């Protein structure tokens, strides 16, 4: 729990203090939106917010059509969201991209998906805890890749950390209207 919290804080400071990269090796336009590749990832301004994601929209466009990301369109109207993980799963990169670019979402708190070592100081939240006002987002390593929406609960599942980050980034782009 402290490790997850510490990782989030340190990641935030790293991005803040490193600032945007001065040399851009690539830039592109997707649906009339400019994106710039920096050392930290793809950077753009969407709906007045500066976002930075590991993956660009062109890379993720085919992923959007494979999953029902639009089914989670109601998440910005919730009052609170819990991001729930298991401490032994390598989901930090996906959680970081989602959390640091969640300006359109209500306040986010961290939780664990099960009672496990490392979760002593965090609440336990699963899809059973989701309500009309409180959402739960579960990040899981597993097979097959899926983006499952059950009421106010979203479960992102992928076989690798990188694939999970792609799912998270695709959802963030969907929330900002980059994908239909």
Task: Determine the structural class based on helices, strands and strand pairing.
Answer: alpha/beta
| Topology, number of strands | 9
Largest β-sheet summary: 5 strands, mixed
Low-confidence stretches: 20-24
User: What shape does the CA trace take?
Assistant: globular
* Percentage of β-strand residues: 25-35%
CA distance, first residue to last residue: 36 Å
* Mean pLDDT value: 90
CA-based gyration radius = 16 Å
Strand neighbour order, sheet with most strands: 6-5-7-9-8
Helix percent band: 25-40%
Put the structure in a nutshell.
With 180 residues, this protein is of the alpha/beta class. It has 4 helices and 9 strands; from the N terminus they run αββββαβαββββα. Helix 2 packs across helix 4 and helix 3 (92-100) packs parallel to helix 4 (161-175).
Would you give an account of this structure?
There is one protein chain. Helix content is 28%, strand content 29%. The chain is of the alpha/beta class and 180 residues long. The strands form 2 sheets. A 5-stranded mixed beta sheet has the order 6-5-7-9-8, with helices on one face. Helix 2 (57-66) crosses helix 4 (161-175) and helix 3 packs parallel to helix 4. It starts with a helix and ends in a 5-residue tail after the last helix.
């Amino acid at each position: 729990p402290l490790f997850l919290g510490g990782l989030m804080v340190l990641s935030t400071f790293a991005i803040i203090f490193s600032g945007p990269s001065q040399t851009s090796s690539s830039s592109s336009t997707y649906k009339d939106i400019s994106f710039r590749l920096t050392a930290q990832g793809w950077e753009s301004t969407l709906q007045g917010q500066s976002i930075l994601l590991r993956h660009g929209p062109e890379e993720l466009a085919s992923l959007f059509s494979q999953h029902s990301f639009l089914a989670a369109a109601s998440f910005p109207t919730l009052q609170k969201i819990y991001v729930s993980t298991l401490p032994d799963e390598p989901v930090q990169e996906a959680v970081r991209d989602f959390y640091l670019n969640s300006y359109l979402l209500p306040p986010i708190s961290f939780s664990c998906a099960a009672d496990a070592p490392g979760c002593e100081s965090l609440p336990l939240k699963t899809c059973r805890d989701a309500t009309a006002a409180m959402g739960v987002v579960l990040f899981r390593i597993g097979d097959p890749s899926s983006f499952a929406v059950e009421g106010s609960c979203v479960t992102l599942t992928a076989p690798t950390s990188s694939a999970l980050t792609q799912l998270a980034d695709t959802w963030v782009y969907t929330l900002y209207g980059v994908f239909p």
